[in-house]
């Protein structure tokens, strides 16, 4: 007796990964992103992320706002962008409309990748 088994793999939607930077503090960047993107944030604490940081989401969008901090070994989180004191990591479904420009509120696009 031969049994045939079909395997269905559910592919994860592809993602767009944004890195944004600002010279404003974390709270100011969080307020600006709330207005611009409609994301509500919760303040969290993590030594791994440099202490106090913000996490937020809405449908198809996950956001972390944190300091561009120096770790115990003296390395900045994003050494290529040392002029930016605050970083925003945004993960977005690739099918969603790309983010609008946020330079008017002091948030610059540093890098974007699609995987």
Describe the protein in words:
- The protein is built from 1 helix and 6 strands; from the N terminus they run βαβββββ.
- By secondary structure, it is mainly beta.
- The chain has one domain: Double Stranded RNA Binding Domain, CATH 3.30.160.
- It has a 6-stranded antiparallel beta sheet with strand order 2-3-4-5-1-6, with helices on one face.
- A hairpin with a 2-residue loop joins β3 (51-58) and β4 (61-67).
- The protein starts with 14 loop residues before the first strand and ends with a strand.
- The model has no long low-confidence stretch (mean pLDDT 90).
Query: How many angstroms separate the termini?
Result: 42 Å
- Percentage of residues in strands: 35-45%
CATH fold category name? Double Stranded RNA Binding Domain
* Rounded average pLDDT: 90
The total domain count is: 1
Q: Count the strands?
A: 6
Low-pLDDT ranges? none
**Helical/strand content category:** mainly beta
Number of helices: 1
Q: Describe the biggest sheet?
A: 6 strands, antiparallel
Cα radius of gyration in angstroms: 18 Å
The strand line-up of the biggest sheet is 2-3-4-5-1-6
Helical fraction: 10-25%
| CATH hierarchy class name | Alpha Beta
Brief overview, please?
The chain is mainly beta and 115 residues long. The protein has one helix at 26-37, and strands at residues 15-22, 40-46, 51-58, 61-67, 86-93, 107-114. The chain contains one helix and six strands; from the N terminus they run βαβββββ.
Helices and strands, with pairings:
Elements: E1 15-22, H1 26-37, E2 40-46, E3 51-58, E4 61-67, E5 86-93, E6 107-114
Antiparallel strand pairs: 1-5, 1-6, 2-3, 3-4, 4-5
